[in-house]
Write a structure and sequence with these properties.
Number of helices: 17
Largest sheet: 3 strands, antiparallel
Structural class: mainly alpha
Number of strands: 6
Oligomer: single chain
Bound molecules: acetyl coenzyme *A
């Protein structure tokens, strides 16, 4: 007998079906509630609402579990390969050697930007925020690939996905070069995805950047750790935009804007700025914790807390261990890592953080790792976007392929003034 929830409202009783996910999560299906009772549910910030069924990513926030298409993320750390994970997320299973090679070739074919973009880079101020450039330019890809605005078959979808995933790193690297007034370095088709990004970021015309395998692996890992996280703020944005049947470029550009926010992807910048403030002696770690607990102070301990994780974020655990490993291997030292460790230790024994179950999230250690690669702070959130892009694409595709999906259009409870009359300007 399938489980049902019983709702009593006034003198009416209705039965609501309970749907059960693969891992036993239960959701009360209220999709017919308004039709049957005239009332809606009220769930500001959607903390209790599943907006879709999805087969892409599983999170158990209580246990600190994250799986992509059923595979625990820890299993991607041995030989990190971001392209393999991207394919897995988008197409639903691990690729064969041939499929992966074909996808790589598609990325290589699409790594250049239309020369028209050069003028776009020249026209923005040198100190323009890279996330603003990224979102504008992803949106503009639609102007150059109008044949991909409506994706009628699998082939054109794969083409659009490859263009986005390939060009995003070229846009990211070019916007960084522009900010320093350095010449653009074109992609090198011989290099793999992450190595090519590092090459475009750091090579100079007369000196090729030397790629260290540890750094290349660490960048693959950072991108993998960010690749999908089910219905987070930016992914939900991509789905909201995509639900109106807006094209893939527009949906991903909108997601970049959501990711930019300091409560979401922008937190990785805030974390480093917070650690730098401590390092420069502007504030002590103890004072930082005190400020984060003070309800009259808007400051938050960035890189801490999560809507879903009430346990250590497994991505933070992996990135922290990777920092330690890479730093030891390369004999690299960063005092910010020591400060981060100290802040974490202070927070984890403080009753405020313990009671609220606030642990380090993905942003707490990612910036320290990106810094070790030479990536400047203002490109951190852009790196998050490069990593998250396959997730947005996978979620967009899942929604697009679902014949039951409808335009996303929440309801509200109106609390404004009751009906009134318009007063002409002369009488006000
Ligand atoms: N520092 C201090 N207090 C915090 C923090 C923090 N980092 N995070 C949550 N809290 C407190 C809140 O003030 C609240 O306290 P209260 O119950 O006394 O009012 C309680 O913990 C619950 O927090 P909410 O804000 O209700 O949790 P929510 O799920 O809405 O927010 C969020 C989650 C946005 C991640 C929040 O923890 C936060 O602002 N963290 C800092 C920013 C950050 O690191 N963002 C990156 C998240 S991961 C990602 O998007 C990639």
């Amino acid at each position: 007998m399938p489980e049902k929830a019983i709702l009593k409202l006034g003198d009416k009783t209705i039965e609501l079906p309970v749907i059960i996910g693969t891992e036993g999560e239960r959701g009360i299906d209220i999709s017919r509630l308004r039709d049957e009772t005239g009332v809606v549910t009220y769930d500001p910030s959607l903390g209790n609402t599943a907006v879709c069924k999805s087969a892409i990513t599983f999170i158990d926030g209580e246990k600190g579990i994250l799986r992509y298409r059923g595979i625990p993320i820890e299993q991607f750390t041995e030989k990190p390969n971001f392209m393999e994970v991207a394919w897995l997320l988008i197409f639903g299973r691990l690729p064969s050697k041939e499929e992966l090679a074909r996808f790589r070739d598609r990325l290589t074919d699409n790594e250049l930007l239309h020369e028209g973009f050069r003028h776009q880079f020249q026209s923005v101020p040198v100190d323009a925020p890279p996330m603003a450039i990224l979102s504008a330019m992803l949106s503009q890809l639609a102007c150059f690939h109008q044949e991909l605005l409506s994706l009628q078959d699998e082939e054109s979808f794969e083409d659009a996905a490859a263009r986005l995933i390939s060009k995003v790193r070229t846009i990211a690297a070019f916007s960084y070069r522009r900010s320093l007034g350095l010449p653009f370095i074109y992609p090198d088709p011989k290099l793999r995805y992450c190595a090519n990004f590092l090459h475009m970021m750091f090579s100079i015309p007369y000196q090729q950047y030397i790629i260290t395998p540890e750094i290349e692996d660490a960048l693959n890992l950072v991108f993998i750790m960010h690749a999908d996280h089910e219905q987070n703020c930016s992914t939900s944005t991509a789905r909201v935009v995509g639900s109106a049947k807006a094209n893939l470029f527009a949906s991903c550009a909108a997601a970049v804007c959501a990711l930019w926010g300091p409560l979401h992807g922008g937190a990785n910048v805030e974390v480093i700025e917070m650690l730098e403030r401590i390092h420069k002696g502007g504030v002590t770690p103890e004072e930082c914790i005190r400020q984060a607990k003070d309800k009259s102070n808007p400051f938050r301990l960035f890189g801490f807390g999560h809507r879903v994780y009430k346990n250590y974020d497994p991505r933070a655990k992996i990135l922290k261990a990777t920092c330690e490993k890479v730093f030891a291997k390369l004999h690299h030292k960063d005092e910010l890592l020591d400060i981060a460790r100290k802040l974490e230790a202070l927070a984890l024994k403080d009753s405020y953080f313990v009671e609220r179950r606030l642990y380090p999230n993905v942003d707490f250690y990612s910036g320290i790792l990106l810094r070790a690669m030479g990536i400047p702070t203002n490109v951190f959130t852009v790196c998050f976007a490069i990593g998250r892009l396959p997730g947005w694409i996978a979620q967009w595709k899942e929604q697009h392929d679902d014949p039951t999906s409808r335009i996303l259009r929440p309801r509200q409870i109106y609390v404004g003034p009751p009906q009134g009359d318009y007063v002409p300007l002369s009488k006000r």
